[in-house]
Write the structure tokens for this entry.
Amino acid sequence: EKSESSRRSFQTDEPRPRKPERRHREPRPHKSGTRARALLDQHTSRPTAPPLTKRERRGLVYFVTPGQQTSSYQPTERSTIGVMDQLRELVNKLQQVCTTLGDNAGSDKNDGLPSLWEVLPSIVVIGGQSSGKSSVLEAVVGKDFLPRGSGIVTRRPLLLQLVQGKPGAKEYGQFLHKMNEKFTDFEAIRQEIEAETHRSLGSGKAVSPEPIHLTIYSPDVPNLTLVDMPGLTKIAIEGQPKSIVRDIEDMARAYIKGENAIILAVSPANADIATSDGIRLAREVDPAGERTIGVLTKLDIMDRGTNARDVLEGRSVQLKHGWIAVVNRAQADINSNVTMDECRKREMEFFNGSPHYRGLRNVGMGSLTHKLCRKLEEAIVRQIPKIQQTINKGVQDMQKELKTLGPMTANNRGAMVHEILSMCREFDSSYATMLDGGKGGGEAILDVFEGKLTKCIRELPFKEVYSLANIKKVINEADGYQPHLIAPEMGYRRLIEAGLKLLKDPSVICVEEVYLILQQLVGTVLSSKDCEGLARYSLLSAEILSQSGLALERMRDDAKAMVVTMVDMEASYLTAEFFREILRVQEEKDASLLTMSGKGIKADGGTSEDLHLKQIANHVSAYLGVVCNQLKATIPKAIVHCLVLQAKKSLLDKFVEEVAGKDAESLRRLLGENEEVMQRREACSKRLDLLQTAYRELTVSLSSR
């Protein structure tokens, strides 16, 4: 029957009734964080990821690529609002971690440490003294809590985090330096800001870039994070350092120069906007005005006949995000305890009742709060992938550097002895490897043996020894009152001994050259990559260098004594067989024996006396030539045996014995690290803690999706 009725109704000419509009249903969030994490991986692992689909944006609005436009973002759906609350809470926690561990806009950016603060979005409030900055912030919060007075009242940045609570929830403030205490009295918050400033800076007029971190929980505040900077000034007053003007500007510039900082430039409307301190400083770091929001205060006390409509409509000073006008409480209102709600009501009555501002939408504290919330949300959406990338890369870099710097030094004696001996073994191994290697080690020593030793021997003045005049003189002195009968044997011996004495200097020089190479090699090994662990301990490195030098000196002295002894041995006993060989060669006219100049030993030309002297000279020269060739081969062997091999095998043996007998205090002194290394390890450890904490917060936040 129902089907028949439907068929007849369809055949009639009556218009068909319209279906009621489909009710809008809120998008259902994912049952778990699996899809969210998958989308995050998809859109952060590729540098040019495609934009998200409509369905993905609905369930995961904050995962966008850095290149996406987010200016049209409006948190209207309940799921989106929940996501933004989570992300704001995440950024708040990350800022707290940064403040606790010393990563802020005022910290040193040349220390090579990864900075998480630089990628966190923030709204930085700047403006000249008495521009109304404090009143604007108090109007956002709805409470009086900031120090007031003449001159520079704010001497440290105030990192103000506003967390919106449930309706009816209790209002309180909490400082990061006093996490266990909740301040329900906002007058006490004001006093604590002044007290903390005094504790860190004293009663002087100095300023500091280290922020005071305050979180205010209230059902009446928007979810915002603001950084209130000290007011810019043009001249130092009595009691202030002369550099105060530059110090405040440099500090404010450091906080607003990052591309993730939204600049809230507060300017009084009753002064020339062109000379506004806040706008001037904002234009230095943001010339195009792409990150700057202008706030006009004190419109209610402008000169009669003037107004700021041209500025508010963008015809005077143009900013991409425009200007917003507010009317702060007058001092009389503060003294009379006029409530914030009443002041906001009077503010809108002023704008609606003024013919100059009636109809403008960019007026009132409500407009300012809404705009700040929207801009902060857009910045957070844009920066989430960058934050994750910075954290992951920073953790890897810090872990790698800490591994290079090495662990903390042990405290007990056994562990310290073990650590020192291990490093000594590493040094010995690296020293032996480099000594057996090429340039700077074994190759340099071989150059001494084959080059410098041969050259030094060749340049010796042997010709002076076997010159005819010297031979005649030496023989006559050796014969004395009784001339020799057949051959001047004593003269031969004295001439050969004189020639052999010349070989001592080249031998000793050769030892010194090898010693210098081995000594330089110690410094090379200590600074090499294989001994990076020793670089941590300057005293231990110096002790190894000193002990190695002492050991090499002992080995050098042994090698010197050995080569000098070898030369003396040649002079102590002459080889008689050599002279018998000379007689045979002369009789058979054999040319196998040559003088040092390469000629035969047979003399020719001149008188009989000259022939006799020449014969002796040739014999002495030939003998010295044979001995020189022998020493060229044996001196390197002696040096290698007494110096090179000993250095390779037992350079630190004596030092190792001493280490085994040292007490704990002496060992601790040896393992005293270089101050720079200790400071660097501490800085890297703190930054690693920051990044790992941030990683955990990020993981928890994403998992909750």
Q: What stands out?
A: The radius of gyration is 46 Å.
